[in-house]
């Protein structure tokens, strides 16, 4: 029998405990909030794994206008410039809010914030903590702040399986726990569930993150946006470790260069060289690997013995793989790192479903466009977490009808989906591969088995990819290598995507016959 948490009814529900969720809960204080997290608070989040830091125009030679220009350039024509400008303008305030919450950012001898440089940024503007351990340091401080906030109730080991609706409004969440199924009645829910890296074999994200928030919102009828744009980080450490360890762009920002197995610096003639936008670097590295070569990051001259002091986390990861980055080449390869698409939201994080907000990587605000600018992700998570919280505060709890009978809900397993997605929806795509993915994913979606929710997210990526007949940002098609004249963002619901997929399947089978 499903337990109903009557004593917590009406509390705002925050699903996820990464940067967006933690900042939202803290901003809502002293209003009662419940954080629902599958793992321990702050654990298994991409936020805690972030190395670079937070992009913010706080330097004397910088401005929000310069930061916006870099963001729009990286977004390759698909950013919403109004949304992007508003989020970027709040960056200094977000840094200040994080410091008030207990985050201690790195500072120089004069006491000013120490600023790093990353790809496609025209200025040093990456605010970091503990060198390359920014995400872990930030999450650690926020977890402590949450623990010291009486208005926040934390429910660990609660995995949200479905959003419950009263008509077209959110009425609660259905959770799986070690003691059985539980319902939290709430008319205000924030999804801050992270990204989709777990759908791919090669990822730098927690492998359990397959886009749960997107699947939840999609099943509830929410609009999804720009799902085809999956960012592959160019420089994951090429080792047996899973998920792959990240070698931050900040290493290239400090002067490290990319070379192939012949010692050739193959990015030297590309505009921006090693600090070109991520999609450009990822495709160049993929091309080297596709011809049978290998790619390495050479930090010996740029950093040498200073490597461990500047990048202690990366140094430890390299040494775990038997590599001394101060004296040896670091083998790298592209890996899924971030998803620009997600649940479509407005400037306050509201989705198209009444009572549902989404913030962080699970959302698509229009900030990132077709290709996220480095370290804009933690910025968006902090700003949008706070914005959603303020917006939710303006609406009071209204009792809703909570369904008494719930659809069968089983644990989700992306293992059947990963080979399909990794093979067909990688760095380089074409119609045959995309249609093959759709044909292979549809039976998993329709099965309503353990692979259903991961397959829904993957199918959405494939359907959106099939409709974008161009190469733009992180979406590269070998059969449509050029950009269309007019860039267009796209939104649709799951029902629309399923209709499109059904129309594609006969074509897919005909191609394979």
Task: Summarize the entry for a quick read.
With 513 residues, the chain is an alpha/beta fold. It is built from 16 helices and 22 strands.
Describe this structure in words.
There is one protein chain. The chain has 513 residues and is an alpha/beta fold. It has 3 domains: 3-195 and 340-393, FAD/NAD(P)-binding domain, CATH 3.50.50.60; 233-333, Succinate dehydrogenase/fumarate reductase flavoprotein, catalytic domain (Flavocytochrome C3, Chain A, domain 1, Alpha-Beta Complex); 410-512, Up-down Bundle (Methane Monooxygenase Hydroxylase, Chain G, domain 1). It is built from 16 helices and 22 strands. It has helices spanning 19-28, 46-49, 64-74, 81-89, 91-100, 134-147, 212-219, 249-253, 278-290, 307-310, 312-320, 376-393, 418-424, 431-447, 452-467, 494-512, and strands at 3-4, 12-15, 33-37, 54-55, 115-116, 126-127, 152-156, 159-166, 169-177, 180-185, 189-191, 224-225, 230-237, 257-260, 295-298, 330-339, 342-344, 356-358, 363-364, 428-429, 476-477, 491-492. The chain has a 5-stranded parallel β-sheet, with helices on one face. Strands 1-10-9-8 form a 4-stranded mixed β-sheet. A hairpin with a 2-residue loop joins strand 9 and strand 10 (180-185). The chain is globular and about 65 Å long. Residues 509-513 have low confidence and may be disordered.
């Amino acid at each position: 029998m499903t337990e109903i948490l009557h004593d917590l009814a009406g509390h705002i529900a925050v699903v996820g405990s990464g940067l967006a969720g933690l900042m939202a809960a803290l901003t809502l204080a002293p209003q009662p909030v419940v954080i629902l997290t599958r793992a321990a608070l702050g654990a298994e989040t991409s936020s805690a794994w972030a190395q670079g830091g937070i992009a913010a125009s706080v330097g004397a030679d910088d401005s929000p206008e310069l930061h916006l220009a870099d963001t729009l350039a990286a977004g390759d024509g698909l950013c919403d410039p109004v949304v992007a400008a508003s989020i970027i303008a709040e960056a200094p305030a977000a840094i200040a809010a994080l410091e008030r919450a207990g985050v201690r950012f790195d500072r120089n001898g004069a006491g000013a914030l120490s600023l790093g440089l990353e790809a496609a940024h025209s200025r040093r503007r990456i605010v970091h903590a503990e060198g390359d351990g920014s995400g872990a340091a930030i999450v650690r401080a926020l977890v402590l702040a949450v623990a010291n906030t009486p208005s926040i109730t934390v429910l660990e080991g609660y995995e949200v399986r479905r959003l419950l609706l009263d008509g077209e409004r959110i009425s609660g969440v259905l959770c799986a726990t070690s003691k059985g199924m539980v319902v939290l009645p709430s008319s205000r829910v924030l999804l801050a569930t992270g990204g989709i890296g777990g759908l791919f074999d090669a990822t730098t994200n927690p492998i359990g993150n397959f886009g749960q928030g997107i699947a939840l919102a999609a099943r509830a009828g929410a609009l999804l946006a720009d799902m085809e744009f999956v960012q592959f980080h160019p420089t994951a450490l090429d080792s047996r470790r899973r998920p792959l360890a990240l070698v931050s762009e900040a290493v290239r920002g400090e002067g490290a260069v990319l070379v192939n197995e012949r010692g050739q610096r193959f990015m030297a003639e590309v505009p921006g060289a090693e600090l070109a936008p991520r999609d450009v670097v990822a495709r160049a590295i993929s091309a080297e690997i596709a011809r049978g070569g290998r790619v390495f990051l050479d930090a010996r001259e740029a950093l040498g013995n200073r490597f461990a002091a500047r990048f202690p986390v990366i140094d430890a990861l390299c040494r775990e793989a038997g590599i001394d980055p101060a004296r040896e080449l670091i083998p790298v390869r592209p890996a899924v790192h971030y998803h620009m698409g997600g649940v479509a939201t407005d400037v306050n994080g509201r989705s198209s479903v009444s009572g549902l907000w989404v913030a962080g990587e699970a959302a698509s605000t229009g900030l990132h466009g077709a290709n996220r600018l480095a370290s804009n992700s933690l910025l968006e998570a902090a700003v949008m977490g706070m914005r959603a919280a303020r917006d939710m505060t303006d609406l009071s709890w209204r009792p809703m009808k909570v369904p008494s009978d719930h659809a069968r809900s089983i644990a989700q397993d992306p293992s059947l989906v990963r080979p399909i997605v990794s093979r067909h929806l990688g760095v380089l795509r074409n119609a045959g591969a995309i249609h093959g993915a759709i044909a292979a994913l549809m039976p998993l979606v329709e099965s309503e088995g353990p692979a259903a929710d991961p397959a829904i997210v993957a199918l959405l990526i494939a359907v959106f990819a099939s409709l974008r007949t161009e190469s733009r940002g992180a979406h590269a098609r070998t059969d449509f290598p050029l950009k269309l004249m007019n860039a267009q963002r796209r939104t649709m619901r799951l029902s629309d995507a399923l209709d499109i997929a059904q129309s594609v399947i006969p074509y897919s089978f005909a191609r394979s016959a």
